[in-house]
Amino acid sequence: MATNELMTSTRYMDEATMNKSHYKFLILLAFGYTFEQIDVFSFSFVAPALTEYWGVSMEWIGLVNSCTFIGMLLGCWLGGWLADRIGRRKTFLGSILFFSIFSLVNGWAPNQEIFLIARTLTGIGMMSMVVVAMVYIVELLPAASRGKWQAIALATALLSIPLIGQLASHVIPGNPEGWRWILCIGGLGFIVIALSKNWLQESPRWLISKGRFKEAEAVIQFYRPDVKVDLTLEASGQVKEEKAQETTKTFEVLRLLFCKEYRKKTLVLINLVVWNTVGYFMFFAWMPTLLNEYGFSLEDSLWMVALVSFGSPIGNYLAAFFTDKGGRKIPIVVYGAIIGVLTVIFGTVKAPMLIVGIGFIIRILMDGVFVLMWSYLAEAYPTHFRSSGTGIIFSTGRILNVGAMAMVPIIYKQFGYSVLFAIIGAMYIMIALVTGIWGERTAGRSLEDIADTKTA
Fold first, then answer.
1. Which residue of 119, 162, 339, 432 is surrounded by the most CB atoms within 10 Å?
2. Residue 429: how many CB atoms within 10 A of its CB?
3. What is the pTM (predicted TM-score) of this model?
4. CA count, 13 A, side-chain hemisphere, 92
5. Which residue has the higher pLDDT, 385 or 8?
6. Beta bridge mates, 3
7. Right CATH number for 9-455 from 3.90.640.10, 1.10.3720.10, 2.60.40.1930, 1.20.1250.20?
8. Domain extents for the chain?
9. CA-based nearest residue to 79, from 26, 31, 125, 39
10. Among 31-35, 263-267, 289-293, 303-307, which is the least confidently predicted range?
């Protein structure tokens, strides 16, 4: 129903009803997530083929994974910084263009050196896109359902993982060049850029933080055609608003993250991001290779991992029902505790169908924690350093992953398969404990209310 009621900018967006403009935005972000996820996981399917056809060692596979995470680390910083400086839209599209180009280079790399460089650069673009997409969703969508739509967008994207797994299991075995085609699929992100002209608008919260009120009015009106948008009060400074300030220096953002008001929140989020990221990628990035080393054939390893990967979209779709309940805090605690127990059990079983069955459940739950984490993290800080702060916190998991990816073969050779998975299980127990004791409930609240630590 149309109304002339004068509202603040945050109410315009927080109280909106989902419409076709919101759904088009979600489709674009789902496409962006799709090609990013293909890029992330295609290497886990390709790695066993490289050991067979290129003759590379487990240590070289670990080096590639570590370099990828170095790229992701840089992408977290760069994407967060750029999104706060030049805007969400430009950074999102630029990141997709960047990783799409280097995905194609990766697929047709003539030697190991170029492969390694291209994989690193692909990682930069992937994580730059992810950081801005997380923030983009929470800033544009209604407060009551933003977590649900984050989960659904990611879940839709994750449908590509079992599909790419099935494709890899048919294309790679017996074909020395088949792995190249799998890697090139991640280069199809140009689809998003082609659709973006009429489907993608800048975040009005970012525009307001820069004092660009007329542009913000136009964007809000685009998403809220049911009301007359008027930001006169914000522009004149007669209502409470976030100050339009430049927070573009990394050291300034770090100071804000660890100042008295945000320190506890930041430490809880670092604990969540570090252990979830490291545990997830230690498990799934290495799963095909570890199963192969454990005694299963290349074909059987790829087949088992492909079946387990069907848990990814299921996990995110299921998380959509729980993410806006319990303030996000409670679902994270419950998921983390269950994963911790199941991962220890996974490391003790040898029957293929038990491995697939338990791995499938773990995949569902770990992907659920990931999407819960994305919303939880993106909601935490004020607009003027939300993206930079999100990028820095998100990068902490990538920092440890650089070393963790290289440590997997060492742990495996020194202590064995079961100990490796027990270590991963302990990481998720830490997530459950720390989030349960010190975590904040955020779901359904205005981003400005969450950022105001005096009301937390």
1. 339
2. 17
3. 0.78
4. 26
5. 385
6. 227
7. 1.20.1250.20
8. 9-455
9. 125
10. 289-293
SS3 109: coil
- Cα–Cα distance, 32 to 11 (Å, whole number): 28
d(CA 80, CA 392): 7
Q: Where are the alpha helices (DSSP H) in 54-87?
A: 58-86
Report DSSP letters for 217-241, one per residue.
Answer: HHHHHHH-TTB----HHHHHT-S--
Q: Rg of the chain's alpha carbons, rounded to an integer?
A: 22
**Which of 79-83, 307-311, 428-432 shows the lowest mean pLDDT across its residues?**
307-311
Those residues whose C-beta lies under 8 Å from the C-beta of residue 246, and which sit 6 or more positions away, are 85, 384
Residues in the chain, total: 456
Place of tokens 């140009």: 190
Calculate helix-pair angle for 190-199, 20-53, nearest 10 degrees. 170
pLDDT value at residue 362: 96
Chain centroid offset of residue 53 CA: 31
Between 138-147, 303-312, 365-374, the lowest mean confidence (pLDDT) is in 303-312
Q: How far apart are the first and last CA of the chain?
A: 33
Most confident of 25-39, 291-305, 439-453: 25-39
Contact 218/212 with Cβ under 8 angstroms? no
What is the phi/psi pair of residue 152, to 5°? -65, -40
User: Please, which residues bridge with residue 227 across strands?
Assistant: 3
